[in-house]
Design brief:
Layout lengths: L2 H10 L8 E5 L14 H11 L2 H6 L5 E5 L9 E8 L2 E7 L5 E7 L1
Antiparallel strand pairs: 1-3, 2-5, 3-4, 4-5
Length: 107
Amino acid sequence: KNIALCVNWLSENRESNLYIREIPLPVRRCDIDFNNHIHNVKYLDYALESLPLEIFKNQVFKALRISYKTATKEGEELTGKYAFIDGKHIVVIYGAEASVKALVQFE
């Protein structure tokens, strides 16, 4: 499998059974910049929050890739979904109506 193809497929298939974990991600006022968008660095915080606890605590990551897809504005609801594919930890951050906000890949 090509990991890029898997990540793209996941982003298009919100209800995939490959997702192991799903959590709501509340957007706080401090996450918003002066353009009324979420700070880019906050997507990393959201992705880390979406990882299963045992992976967050025990995994040492050597690489990280974030792909920003669409801006998130104040008041939007986000969901983080986690999958483990081909040795890579993948988090897809979704907005309302299944719009992909960001893809985060940890290695």
